[in-house]
Amino acid sequence: MAPLWEAPSRAQRRPTRPIPAPRMLFSRDPPPVRPVRVGSVPAVPGAHPPARHLPGAHPRSVLPARPVPLRRGEGAGPTRPQLPDAPHHRDAARRDRASAMEAAAILYVRHCAAAIFCRRVPPLCPVCGRPLRDAGLLSAPVSLQCPFVHGHRQHRAFLLRPTAGSFLREYDGNSDLHVGISSARGVVYHYNEEGVHRDESGWEQCISVPLVQPDMFELLQQWDQILEEFSMGEEWLPHRYEEHDHNCYTYALAFINSVLTAQGKQQMSKSEFTEKFVIPQTKNASKYITLHQELTTKDFYIVPLPDQEKQC
């Protein structure tokens, strides 16, 4: 996706000079927008350490451990019983399996007039039973690119994530979403009923919309200063927050428009920004979530191809 701010052409460039002072970038009365629904920011749960087991005991055993062999001359003392397997240990194992499933790539194979999605390419086509190895180049497996990225590694970007949970686990398509703006160091600035937050974690699975081209050196250098000073504005105090009329989307879009104004460009409405930059990303993410959920319980997910794409 093309960045929101593009560098001027060579003919349009003027002699290098610093952008206007930060005070000229911020408007006390940002343009009214109709934000999306938001909710509270959930705390990021910490991972519990795996349970330790005594030597000689089966990891799932609730019986006393077998005695540890003693060296010659040592007295035989009482053996310590094995503790029952803790619930958090089982939860950690489930989280590990879910994380491994999320990390596994989704593959796409075209065969028998159908799109076959899977985690591992089978030797035989699940539709016709013929070998896929000899099916030709058109049936070669292709890895789908995951639309979700690590938000703290996306610099100077508009970020979108579920208010609670993650896209590939808890999100059901109807849950509230939360947005933020990342700094040059990957710190995510976002606004809720507690004011402006500066998160260094918690945005590990996001949809990202890049905002700045890498050759806009002046804006790149001053991005963090502009973002920090904008976030200190009185309109982003906690008591000004309103779930439907003055929320995280209001904050993010007002910041984007302030930079557009400083660049001498026209401001964008919420609907214009959403349709041009956000919806294309969310459509792709929705398709990927559907495939991920189907392949969680199935080995294959088969979709018939349109007539013009059919190829056996």
From TrEMBL:
The protein, known as: MKRN2 opposite strand
Compositionally biased region (Low complexity): 35-46
All residue ranges annotated as the MKRN2 opposite strand protein-like N-terminal domain in the record: 106-132
Region (Disordered): 1-97
TM region positions: none
Record InterPro entries: MKRN2OS-like (IPR032016), MKRN2OS-like_C (IPR053921), MKRN2OS-like_N (IPR053922)
Signal peptide positions (record): none
Pfam family, one: DUF4796_N
Domain MKRN2 opposite strand protein-like C-terminal: 141-295
Organism whose genome encodes this protein: Coturnix japonica (Japanese quail)
Compositional bias segments (type: Basic and acidic residues): 86-97
